[in-house]
Amino acid sequence: MTDESPSNVVGRAREVELLVAALDSGAHVLLEGPPGTGKTTLLRSVAAEEKTDFVFVEGNAELTPARLVGHFDPALVLERGYGPETFVDGPLAEALRAGALLYVEETNRIPEETLNVLITVMSEGELTVPRYGRIVAAEGFRLVAAMNPFDAVGTARISSAIYDRVCRITMGYQDAVDERAILDLRAPGVPGEWGAKVVDLVRRTREHPEIRVGSSVRGAIDMARLCGALARRRGVDVEDWTVGLDAALVALSGRIRLAESIGRAPEDVVRELYVAVFGAEPREDSGGDDPGGA
Ligand SMILES: Nc1ncnc2c1ncn2[C@@H]1O[C@H](COP(=O)(O)OP(=O)(O)OP(=O)(O)O)[C@@H](O)[C@H]1O
Ligand SMILES: [Mg+2]
Predict the structure, then answer these.
(1) What is the 290 CA–ligand 1 centroid distance (Å)?
(2) pLDDT tens sequence across 27-48
(3) What is the pTM of this model?
(4) Which domains does the chain have, with CATH numbers?
(5) Ligand 1 centroid to residue 57 C-alpha, Å
(6) 88, 178, 232, 248: most buried, per Cβ within 10 A?
């Protein structure tokens, strides 16, 4: 996933204000919201505006304390022994020394022992590394942890010890107007009304009774870009019905999670929603009428 660094944030004035104020007040922050709701975009933009350095960590099951904090270089240790010159900073040590923002994505996926390191740092403002010594947080160090409440891997595991040490800002899906503006920003040149339909289709995946988790605005961005590329290859208009359907299937079928007991394929549900928004397939044999449609 390569989300390009944003030059600006659409909407989110309230969240930006709350985040800036929370960081100013010295708090660590938990950004909680479904995937693609702009958590990373928001933090990047705030960090850039405040001219704060930030260190980015992808949270996953392999993020051990050593990977987060740092480790001793075995070859150098053989030569010179344990000490600051043989220690290789991980993202946490780097952020502590620099007084930077440490942004941890997918915090709910990281192992318990690594969460405990974060708890210690938040409580003490410093870290003790065996055979190295103390690393004290420089002025400005803050932890911003992002978390997705739909993630089955275990929001429950985020202990109350973490919740008790952070301020929490929730990020829901934005409204249709903002999502349309995001689409314009990330997939420029999308025709007006057609773009609104792409956004409508993606938003419907969040309300469909058979879908447990719908697509984020990322689905709309991918669908619009894919339509452009497919239409060029096929030598047809971006608004071509079949191009749109193919792009919807490819961009959305993997992004939606159907409710457990549903026997349908995700492609089937995407097609149903596509027809609901873009209309039934235009018939070319309906003599007289203009084929192709709008
Ligand atoms: N308010 C916004 N303004 C501009 N772009 C946005 C906004 N919200 C989302 N986007 C765009 O949507 C995509 C997803 O946003 P982002 O990566 O910030 O979401 P996220 O909440 O960090 O997702 P995840 O939980 O998967 O990490 C990006 O391409 C981003 O540029
Ligand atoms: Mg993110």
Answers:
(1) 39
(2) 999 999 999 999 999 999 998 8
(3) 0.87
(4) 13-170 (3.40.50.300), 176-278 (1.10.8.80)
(5) 16
(6) 248
